[in-house]
Write a structure and sequence with these properties.
alpha/beta, binds S-adenosylmethionine, two-stranded antiparallel sheet, 2 domains
């Protein structure tokens, strides 16, 4: 049997499902099973397969059963890098690149020299790792409530040679003391967050590939879908920082409404190439007059 005949076998099995591009997915699974780059696969397509092909067959069967491709290969592309994705952790979505780009632009366009970055809900770690690669001297501190996400982000930090100390496991809303310390060190702060933002009704209508396999805590926010932003803004009331968040489709109007209750400067919303609002940038003032007099601590202290 050649790699080409395995490729076609995979395509045939996957074409019996709703998968949009069975040939491409068969190729991705074949390359993952045999650990081949695209050019290695192309140059070996007509070679007789010496290795055991059972791993590839298991992969194809898992995919036929609806397991997401990224959980089978345990990898995904984000930006220009390949990241490990563990089952139980949200698979990074390409739209999150808008959030990363906005954070980069915001920091680069500023005349301030000293920045620090905080992330709420890091998942696989993609946002903090991309920002760490872009700004290697900028301290970053990130939390996720999901222990599996912590394990996953540490793997990716090691893979991409960024400090593993960026990542901490825990509920972001329990970190007020640490944040108070961090935010009193005189640096400008960007807080990035791609929160759960799917409403209960939209969640129920998601495709089964997502519903059955991706973590609900990463996706579902509540009846309206904007509850996490509300909780975040309420929690961040004392802090002066720039908040950059990913948002869901059609969430600009309810968010603008919600922002009015927090008396900050108006948020700026950014559209993607399809004209969909994907990100907001909100310069948050503090409702405490002088929070620079609190503990003069740095990121390594909690
Ligand atoms: C939409 S996912 C984003 C993951 C990753 N940043 C990305 O863009 O792919 C939201 C993440 O927030 C985490 N999360 C939810 N509630 C949290 C909380 N209270 N504190 C910290 N992390 C939380 C979830 O575990 C999940 O990993």
């Amino acid at each position: 049997m050649t790699l080409f005949s395995l490729l076609k076998w995979g395509e045939k099995i996957l074409s019996q499902t709703a998968i949009e591009n069975p040939l491409l997915e068969s190729e991705i699974l074949l390359r993952a099973a045999f650990n081949l780059s695209k050019s290695q696969l192309l140059s070996r397509l007509q070679d007789l397969v010496q290795e055991d092909s059972s791993l590839f067959k298991t992969y194809v069967k898992s995919r036929r059963e609806g397991i997401p491709l990224a959980y089978i290969t345990q990898t995904t592309e984000f930006g220009s890098r390949t990241y490990t994705v563990l089952p139980g952790v949200l698979i990074p979505r390409p739209e999150t690149e808008w959030l990363v780009q906005e954070a980069i632009s915001h920091i680069e366009a500023s005349s301030h020299q000293e920045w620090q970055i905080i992330e709420c809900g890091f998942g696989t770690g993609i946002i903090s790792i991309e920002l760490s690669k872009q700004f290697p001297d900028t301290p970053i501190l990130a939390w996720d409530i999901n222990p599996k996400a912590y394990e996953n982000a540490i793997m990716n930090a090691k893979k991409h040679l960024v400090p593993t100390t960026i990542f901490r496991q825990g509920d972001f809303f329990q970190q007020k003391k640490t944040l108070q310390s961090c935010l009193s060190n005189g640096k400008q702060t960007v807080l990035v967050c791609n929160p759960p933002y799917i409403s209960d009704s939209d969640y129920a209508n998601l495709e089964s590939q997502i519903l059955d396999h991706e973590p609900i805590t990463a996706l579902k926010a509540g009846p309206k879908g904007i509850e996490f932003y509300d909780k975040l803004l309420s929690f961040l009331k004392p802090f002066c920082l720039t908040l950059i968040c990913e948002i869901g489709i059609h969430q600009r109007p309810p968010l603008e409404n919600m922002f009015k209750t927090y008396q900050n400067e108006p948020a700026r919303f950014v559209k993607d190439f399809h004209g969909i609002y994907r990100v907001f940038i909100l310069n948050k003032t503090s409702d405490i007059l002088d929070n620079t007099k609190s503990l003069n601590a740095t990121f390594g202290d909690s």
